[in-house]
Request: fold
Amino acid sequence: MLRNLLRSGIRFLFIVLSDFDVKGLENIPSEGGVILAVNHLSRLDSPLIFMLLKRGDATALVADTYQENSFFRWIIEAVDGIWINREQADFQALREAQKYLEGGGLLGVAPEGTRSNNGALMQAKIGMAYLAEKARVPVVPTAIYGTETISNKLSRLQRPKLHVQFGQPVRFPPLKQSGRSKRLEKNTNEIMCQIAAMLPEAYRGAYADHPRLQELLQHKEDPPTATQLDTPQTSGIIPNNSIRNIHAGRQVTNRAFQRAAGS
Reply:
């Protein structure tokens, strides 16, 4: 009950105070463990993502520094957020997150570990890829931008334009012990490059010149041939058609959001 009331209140504020454009909401699996890997620009990223999701089991890994703010602490605990100490390897939090994913929950993770101070992507840590490997769950790359302008825009009595795009779920093959660290890094780069490919050029930061990003951008520009459509990708990703929706690419705006969110 509290979760639904909280989502409704947050949704109302975003609809009234902002314009937002949402793509790929149908790419989020309706059930089962899944990680939403999201770039991080603002304290309002998490509330925006939370109010868009229809699933009732959505939570996130949250920096324990937010415990100092009683309002944020109340909100995070209301949605069963998992506190993590980002200053060290917090294995207790990772075990709790793994257990949540294995139990079929949806977990939001910021692979960069903290908010970007200039809006551009920072080099990500391997924690997200580690969790995906341990819990054997897919990852949905999620790109967000515009939230970093909210305070400035509202102070000028302007409605900020917010953008969220959910990519196709990615499921990585099991890792062998040999070369495991390098593979986790490669999996991390794959997700970050997929996020970068959904962002405007100015936001791509540390991944702007990554070869994998260039491949993804080229693929977006060139329509796939029949052979490409029938051939699995060679990046080490297992195609996961069971969690893809045939209506990929549908756009959802705030004017149509209530219909898309099932409200």
Remarks:
- Residues 180-197 form the longest helix (18 residues).
